[in-house]
Amino acid sequence: MTTREVPVVIITGYLGSGKTTLMQNILRQEKRKIALIVNDMGSINIDASILNKTGNRVAQVEMVEMQNGCICCTLRDEFMAEIERMSSDRSIEAIFVEASGISEPSSIAGAFLNYEELAENTRVYLKTIVSVVDADRIYREFLHSLSPDEDTEEGDIINLIMDQIEFCNLMVLNKTDLLTESQIQEVKAGLRALQQEAEMIECVKGDVDLDIILNRPDFDFDEVEAYSAVQRALNQCEHDDEKACVDEYGISSFVFEEKRPFNREAFNKLIEEYPEVLIRTKGYIWFSDDWKHIQLFEQAGRNASVTELSEWVSAWPDEELDKVVADFPDIKDDWDETYGDRCNQVVFIGKGYEKAGIVRLLYDCIEEAF
User: Which residues span the domain enclosing 131?
Assistant: First the structure.
């Protein structure tokens, strides 16, 4: 098997967080020869254009622009082909990928690791996933200023930012010069409620030493996935019916599970009056007026949303269902005679709340007829 010696670093973070500025600073350091992939959703890759203006240093690296799609989905195969082609250049010491602002890092990492397993002769390996965080925006919009009146689009943005924070092994807190020291500490405490292990680095204008990014333990998908407070709650609290689990930061979490469906109107009312003590909520639910679709419920700060996803397996036609059960008999392990695989499973994370009170609010939304 070929030695895997070319580290790949994925730079994620929402639009305006400072990913391109970080890359400009890395390129200026001239410590190693770096290849760079820049992904942008638009037909014109603005980030690549900016990086091209950085100066002579860019001429010494190979830069590939990938646009009109996202490397976590529509451009996935093209992305891996470019990674492989770049690694064939023996002078390349590292490959940096500036992901689109709307990329999901878990999807990129999953695709990358799947490729590593299948391509036995590849020289590349996933070294680090960096999440660039706009500390000022987190302070203003997540910690304090989000209101229930924000529209769905803004709520989706905040949830995407939270996903990018939850799935990384290095957080770069950018724009810290816009905050006081006490505000920075407040931001850090809020982020630790979501991501408890990844190293945090404070910076101004994306000024981070390249060695900090490359000289660290290799990325571990399972470990990073377990970093998130949501996953920790699922792992640690799933069978704890008495109380919420509390971590060293004073953040508590619990998992709510119930087979019976929610009443949609009652649940929407709960969202409108959502408890402010809850920092993050994420999970799958279903409604009594829709036995077909899985719904994703997400909340970050004061923003909450419900999104229709795929279908419950038990909603499939009998012939398809019989085939799935024959191929995957384990699917019947948690099968309910009435509801099949339908269930509500939601993780709640917060500080200073009473679990019994939250659970009571949830059961008030359960459809009484079931």
Answer: 6-227
